[in-house]
Specification:
156 residues, mainly alpha, 5 helices, 70% helix
Length: 156
């Protein structure tokens, strides 16, 4: 069985990577909104990172499922479900989740921006939950190595 230290350490690294990716999404979408880049460039940049974002979230969920952290698995389940739903319901003819022909129509920029900010908030909260659990798993062991109950070893 995988130790909790390894699970939560990996989840911290994975969640941190997704946080940086979501910040990149927000910056790229705000560049499109301010007309610093065109829609084709924006959508091609963001569509490349859509599948790794989904994969990273699913890896976290599978790790939590197989190690028995049911509550954290259930907290992550709605976001994973929506990410998969969003990917599977891409209209025929679009190049990905972000399509340059439709991104300016019907307020798609605002929708994508608000979804990215919701994901950013969720991942920030869950990052600190994983950090707390990682520290708790590290402190679960005895920090002072003792040979006897009365004797404390002071050398490292």
């Amino acid at each position: 069985m995988i130790a909790d230290k390894v699970v939560f350490g990996f989840n911290l690294i994975d969640t941190g990577a997704v946080l940086f990716l979501l910040i990149y999404f927000v910056l790229t979408l705000s560049d499109l909104e301010c007309d610093y880049i065109n829609a084709q460039q924006c959508c091609s940049k963001l569509n490349i990172w859509s599948i790794p974002k989904i994969t990273a979230h699913i890896i976290i969920m599978l790790l939590l499922l197989f190690t028995g952290h049911w509550i954290l698995f259930l907290v992550n389940l709605p976001f994973a479900g929506y990410l998969i739903y969003e990917f599977l319901t891409i209209p025929k003819g679009n190049i990905g989740i972000f399509d340059p022909a439709e991104i300016h129509n019907r307020g798609q920029i605002k929708k994508h921006m608000s979804l990215c900010l919701v994901y950013l908030g969720f991942y920030l909260i869950i990052f600190f939950i994983y950090l707390y659990n990682f520290i708790r798993a590290l402190l679960r062991e005895d920090p002072i190595k003792r040979q006897d109950d009365d004797e404390i070893i002071t050398d490292l």
